[in-house]
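Pilot study result, target chain (446 residues):
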Amino acid sequence: TGLLTSHEAAVGCYGDQAEFCREELQLLDNEGRAVITQHKVSHSCEGKEKAIAVINVYCPRADPEKPERKQFKLQFYKLLQCRAEAILKDGSHVIVLGDINTSHQRIDHCDPSDNEDFDENPGRKWLKLFLHGIRQEEEENDQEHAEFSQVTSTPPGHGGKFVDTFRYFHPTRANAFTCWSTLTGARQTNYGTRIDYIFADHRLASEQFVAADIMPEVEGSDHCPVWGQLSCSLVPSTKPPPLCTRYLPEFAGKQQKLSHFFVKAEQNSSLPEHRNPLPGSQEEEEKRENLNPTAQKSGQKRLSNVLKGKKTKTVKSSSNSQGSLLSFFKPTVTNVVADTPVRQCELLSSAEENGQQTPITRLTPQPAAKKGSSSGFWKSVLHGPPPPPSCKVHKEPCVLRTVKKDGPNMGRQFFVCARPQGHASNPDARCNFFEWVDKGKGGVWS
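Predicted structure:
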């Protein structure tokens, strides 16, 4: 929109924005969905320099649960076309590329028959007018063009000014998709859509593009890369672009050259400085214990005081201090004389030294729990996941899913076929098995 531009070397050419109010323009640019750069190229045949503006976009997604985003997406398309055609009119070539978030034709969708109003999608209608080669029956439908007068600035009866470079070179290739659902594993069955494009103005596509394709073999995202190759050569710029970080105030004069990272650093042979520990630190306590090991006998004095009947704070051993969670489900044991786990012989010898006949309570060790008893206890307290049924077609165990959408079934769980999503005609794809989890049978596992 130009509202957020803060430098003088911007590409410019914003077109007629009279149909947008300032608030709409601000909202459309606030999400940072476009990066526009301009480059100079030299045509190999003509020997002339020509400018190419590259509009890299991430178009909004029309969330079915948010109707306002559908209108936002159409407004973004409208502004994108306004800007691209204005730059083109100024004499520069234009490339629009990125995630357009709409599949153009039925051949670009894995299952267009699943959507009854496929051709009536507003975003798809905009693409048909934005791209060169509009169908004749649409040109003759004046009512339809009147409906799109608010979505596109292209006059009715004319084809678009841009070309889908992939279809320019591969007009009939099917199953060429660039995006797949990761939730359903649809990439394994190539059940996706082609929503990532490289659009170029018609002259640039016909004169300079030599190839264009997709790269579905490149993984790491729910999208795959797309690429295009031009025959023209780039003309180097005399200076970095205005938004280069070297011009930002917080970085100016502070950056190092790459060569500085390969210079051998000088080794400091001096001994490290002596650190004074903080008072009361753990390091100081450890040093004190090492210098005065007799202080460790204080534990024996505490034991004598206990046997004499004095009230003294007992010291718990640090070993095995963390009890089992099962102990919280057992009755509490009372009347324990000694809290410190000292061997029985030590208690007897201390009592004899003091010449007292203090009765000593013998602590009988508890027998170890039988193996498997704890697992049986947990099974009686907590319910595990319900046993998965087998799907009817593949006879394979199903997977457990949870409803995440708002509604009466929010949070409910169900079983579906474990295979990845795919076309109904694909035997390796997920079958239509579906079964709700019955809370009365094993409970719900979350």
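One observation from the pilot: Residues 134-157, 347-351, 442-446 have pLDDT under 50 and may be disordered. A full batch analysis is planned for the follow-on phase.
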